[in-house]
Amino acid sequence: MLRYPSVITLISAVLLASTFVAAVDLKPETNAAFNRYVLLSEKRMQNEVEAGPFLCVDRLSPQQHQAAYQRLQRGEVVIQRLETLDRGTPIAVPGGLIHHWTGIVFIPGATLKKTLTVMQAYDEHSRVYAPRVLSSKLIHHSGDDFEVFLRLRDANVVTVVLDTQYAVHYVHLDQVRACGISYSTRIVEVENAGQPNEHQEPAGRDNGYLWRLNSYWRFWERDGGVYVQLEAISLTRDIPEGLGWVVRPFITTIPKESLEFTLNRTRAALVAK
Q1: Looking at the whole model, is its pTM more than 0.85?
Q2: If 0-12 CB within 10 Å is exposed, 13-18 middle and 19+ buried, where does residue 202 land?
């Protein structure tokens, strides 16, 4: 459902490379590989929702499990990098890179109802997730379905502004558990944002900072608060040949920082409530 700030910093994993090369197109085979990756990932997620473990920390060994919950109780964010395999083999993504991370935070004193209220207040996301969300707007709402607009900004390496839209759906599993799923439906780069000559680049024919983003949220009210988990799968352009040594470190650090930012801001908003 939300994912936005988490999205925006994932793009920085390829910003350095993109400043040295020309714009690229999102090719059909790249998009197809991402869809395959998502399909297999969602099968695993569905099994977890139906039969468990519901939270990523509950998949850990007993020792790691205890340590993770201690960290959560201290207010830390527990983050893990993931990779979905196809029959034990990595999924090739020609011309693209898939970034796949999950993180979890515990919000003491929160309830499931209050958590969902904050998450679904999309007009407020530009305040909650500033400065990475410049503007936010609820376009349409019907029951558990939302259509959302977010203008995102990242200045980690170079300044990038994106206009993005998402289809978001919530599922209430029981009185204490719920899920939120967000799919990007449109992502375009904005050139000269805020200037008289501001304009959008054609979708899928740009610098490839961010082409696709899926966000999967889980909420569980227990232990005197709410556990909030975010799993994000995004697609960016591939690293240009010869520049991997420059960009590779960003791939492992920036997505982690992005998830931590998103979950910490979500926690802060609910603690403030």
Answers
A1: yes
A2: exposed
- Locate 201 and state its tokens: 């680049």
Q: Which domains does the chain have, with CATH numbers?
A: 4-272 (3.30.530.20)
Closest to 193 in 3D by CA, of 152, 161, 164, 149: 161
pLDDT in tens, 24-83: 889 999 999 999 999 999 999 999 999 999 999 999 999 999 999 999 999 999 999 999
- Helical packing angle, 244-272 and 112-119, nearest 10°: 120
For 30, phi and psi rounded to 5 degrees? -70, -45
Residues forming a β-bridge with 220: 177, 227
Q: Which of 181, 183, 186 is nearest to 169 (CA)?
A: 181
Compute the C-alpha angle 185/189/190, nearest 5°. 125
Cα–Cα distance, 184 to 215 (Å, whole number) = 9
